[in-house]
Amino acid sequence: MLDVECSRRPSRLEFHDLSPELGDFRRELVTGLSAARKSIPCRFLYDARGSALFDRICKLPEYYPTRTELGILRQIAPEVAERVGPGAQMIELGGVNSLKARILLDALDEPAAYIPIDISRDHLRASAEAIYAEKAGLSVLAVCADYTQPFELPEAPGGGRRLGFFPGSTIGNLQPDEAIGFLATWVKKLGPGAAMIVGVDLRKDPAILEPAYDDAQGVTADFSRNLLVRANRELGSDFDIDAFAHRSRYDVPSGRIVINLESLKAQTVTIPSDDGSIEIRFAQGERIHTEDSYKYSLEGFKTLASAAGFRPTAHWTDENQLFSVHYLETAEG
Length: 333
Hints:
Blueprint: E1 2-5, E2 13-17, H1 25-34, H2 48-57, H3 64-84, E3 89-93, H4 99-107, E4 113-118, H5 121-134, E5 139-144, E6 162-166, H6 176-190, E7 195-201, H7 206-212, H8 219-235, E8 244-251, E9 256-263, E10 267-271, E11 278-282, E12 287-294, H9 298-307, E13 311-317, E14 323-329
Parallel strand pairs: 2-5, 3-4, 3-6, 4-5, 6-7
Antiparallel strand pairs: 1-2, 7-14, 8-9, 9-12, 10-11, 13-14
Helix pairs in contact: 2-8, 3-4
């Protein structure tokens, strides 16, 4: 479905709804919890309540990534604009919270189009409408889609460079081989002569990393347990929320934060279905794996990006070497 808002100005606002599917929550939940190593896909963390909790996480004193990346982007925006040139088409993967995108759009030389892509339909529409209202002359072509799945980008005005934008160290939620495959897909999708900016969290002292994923106020714990709250609300399951604890740790050899929900007692959870209820048994101490967050060295991420077909040409970090932003280019046509 395509909604188009017409205007007297040459720019345009479009909403391309490709009807993305998160997958059947009940099916994924039952499959994941029936496995020898129980798990729930991390994409189910972001219902409305989960998204609101994550917004709170981003403002916590322990959670350095958001404010550190914002600081880097503010410093480098003029240099990025010079590298990209005039009339750019900026494509943001995960275009719901557009604060970071605004920093680049404000710096770019008369960008022709902004193409935010996100699976959250209502939030994406609101964000796209807000940017269109703010940026005279900028076409905003929002795409409601899962950016990890195949889809076609809309035709955009302007003959400038395509600039992919993937902030937030979301690349870290993918296994390294998955990250290579994902970036390789975007090398092809962006096309020759394009560029991509990727936010990447860096390896560091566990004393800094671990509190970022287990804050003193317990907001991150609420965010993790919201998976079970969602299951109770949407599926009619009977998880005892207080009987599960948020656990996170930094695995130094693999360079990743590992996040689980731990059962605090032996218990049985019932998940209703059309074919009858399904019972899932938990031993005391048994864990549900919910998320990984990989951290990279500067050279480690450049190697990964190169394996995907990008050419790393610049990177920037904060003074404490907590976070990095990478500028990658595709080959010329």
